[in-house]
Design brief:
By secondary structure, this protein is α+β, with helices and mostly antiparallel strands. Helix content is about 15%, strand content about 40%. It is built from 13 helices and 57 strands.
Amino acid sequence: MSGVLGVRQLLLWGSACLWLPVLAQGALVISRDHAAVQETRGAARSLQKRSANDGTVEVYSVKVDCTVTSRFAHTVMTSKALNKANSSQEIFFEMDLPKTAFITNFTMEIDGQEYVGEVKEKEKAKKQYEKAVSSGQTAGLVKVSGRKMEKFSVSVNIAAKKNVTFILTYEELLQRKLGQYEILTRVKPKQPVQEFQIVADIYEPQGIAFVEASGTFLTNELLPLVEKTVADTKAHISFSPTLEQQRECAGCENTIIDGDFIIKYDVKREASLGEVQIVNGYFVHFFAPPDLRRVPKNVVFVIDRSGSMSGKKIAQTREALTAILKELHKQDHFALILFDNNIITWKKSLTKAIKENVAEAIAYVKQLKDNGATNMNDAILKAVEMLEKDREDKKLPERSVDMIILLTDGMPNNGVSNLLTIQENVRSAIGGKMSLFCLGFGNDVDYAFLDVMSKQNKGLARRIFEASDAAVQLQGFYEEVSSPLLLEVDLRYPDNTADFLTKSHYSQLFNGSEIVVAGQLSSNDLDNFLVEVFALGPDEDFQVQGKASVVNWDVIYPQQEYIFGNFTERLWAYLTIQQLLENSDIGTLQEKDITTAKALDMSLRYNFVTPLTSMVVTKPETEDGTDGTLIADKLTEEQRQKAERRTGITDITGSSAHAASSLIYSDVDGDPHFMIELPNRADALCFNINDTPGTIFNLVRDPKSGFVVNGQIIGKKKVVPDGNINTYFGRFGITHQKLGVKLEVSTQDISVFHNGKQVKLLWSDIAFLKETNMELNLTKNCSLTVTLRHSVKFMVIRHTKVWKRRHDKQDYLGFYTLDSHHLSTSVHGLLGQFYHGVTFELTDLHLGEVQGKLDATMYVKGQTLRVTRHWQRDFSRDVKNGENIHCWFVNNNGTGLVDGSTSDYIVSDLFKTV
């Protein structure tokens, strides 16, 4: 807009939320009909409040329509808005889509005119993009958005009293993991919408085994609105709350709908041949036979313990390895190799995973400490050597699978450090005899290097994000590959009938997964379309063959005019492109060029936005006669990692970030530190509250269920003269009126009142109580975990802090919310007000006055705050040692982030109820 910023309405998923960019000098220029008005930052805040309530942009429709046909998902997202103002406004459309999906279309409909995105070769699109950059009329459309998603955003100038419709379409082949398919839809409308609808139709001729629908934002009140109809071969799921049902509370302007809507399902599996479907000259073969016995595995865990793994990384690695070792089957063999600049083996050869050996390994792992540099090359080669020697010595079962699982967080800097040399050394040593799985921990590792090395050796790579759930990520990956069912799976089809096959040989079939092969038919002689599968099983060879039966879609789905009729062809194209892209960075230079050219040709032919193509969107002309060119790219995992490195924080895009999460953990611990963790975006907010000992604060209050948590502050036993008075939480009073539960937790003991009975426990006890509405688990001198049925789950941790030099110690308590999504939208309190989400924007990220710490400007709850990047200790996963969680720290008792003032939360009694 010719250097003048206009009033911008942020349309998140078709939702209106005012976004007022901050200029470098702290002033805000607002342009309506090119009449600029300058305001100070303080005035901008009040304008922001007024504008948000003006309703000048009405978002009146948000629809998500997903059709799944034989695992291939076709999703159309539509948002409609009206500019009610008397002047033109720039409206943003922003939404998240799975990173595994390919965008196939984007259309804007403005005042009867359509503007359709065009998929072009990336280099050609780049030239058009650079030409537009020189005139200042362009922007990128796709950014990183958490671990699983990408954010697509576009803005357009809409004339007064005019409508705009945004339509985004994307497609993906659903992958079967751990026995189910998942359809993930992220919804963030930001305000109640007149017409809000999520609809999914699933068509599976093989038969549907089960369908589940859930949402991170679904409360008990919203759950009945999820409608699910399941027949033998089709399912219909819908969620259409009314305008009032979307509100956080009666009369509220905010919406409760903010998070992920998740559908999980699986199909029936009977024939060992699998399912073959033939439609419109293309076939697809789904192979995941039921009731197979697992093949024993021989796994060497190669663990980086270099200095960069210090702190929470090494603690999480210990936790994950302990859990993984417990899951080993007694027929498996395993070994542990630790490496820094030295290579340390737990034992000289692999060990059978019997109970005694596993217990000994767990004890060894618990002593794992960080130290030294990173000699990755020699560590992997040592693992190969151990597996080869044990094979030669016939110590391993003949029918078993050999695998190496590497976990590292950094770059090789000791021994062989050239990445290409390491890849060649490993490829040459393995020689196709075993699989290498690489886990890259954090952002310092070269993920592209690990990815190529895994592909060269019949494995795969996975990023492990630095977050409180890193141990869970590690365990989740292991679970996917822990149970091989078949080895060297070869799927064969008639040479004279099937052409242009996707990958048809797989090194392993893992439990809960699925092999998919697609191809083009070169003959109509379907009577002789013979399918054969050969593989190695745990005891004998697996061999099955049979003729493919043609599915008669008109019979299975009568009167269904359109079920994405060319899905087999588009599925084949999607799968072919994915596999070509996977192979485009391995092989000789000539092979890479040929593979890349094929992938590019197919991407253009089928209108897929892939890493080789871009979608060019040309915006309509504005009143000053300028238009804009926008580019939608597909991010590779390497590009995602680089974007996170630039910001240092996952999910921040460009110069600002918009965040709202329904998956929230609100905790208080220490002296006392409050923390709001946002796992979906690997970030957190934090603040401290200081008051006099004896003060009782309300932490949680839910008027609908009568669930209340109050906490009393205690002072430090020894007060240092002229020093700060450290305070902690020393008592909690917890009440649930509807369930008739009351708990008093102090640093000395725990009193439980339920159904007229009282139980008193000491922290030195070990106890487990289970009743209809309550489950209580007490670990000795450690933690109390309580689950209240259909309500809430929380943990109280007892700490003892020791100052050895002063011969002093202090007992205190921490309170951790583990699951709160069933509580009502009226829940409040110092912690409770964050249970259903917190929305904030960050701008102006820069190094602050304190060396090494990042400062930023935060817009939250209509306030502008200066925040600093800190870390706080979280003990919910590692009760003994805790882990450091990075957070944005809000000064002055959380003023601006916390509703009202801290005095508003002071109550007179530990069991003061709502």
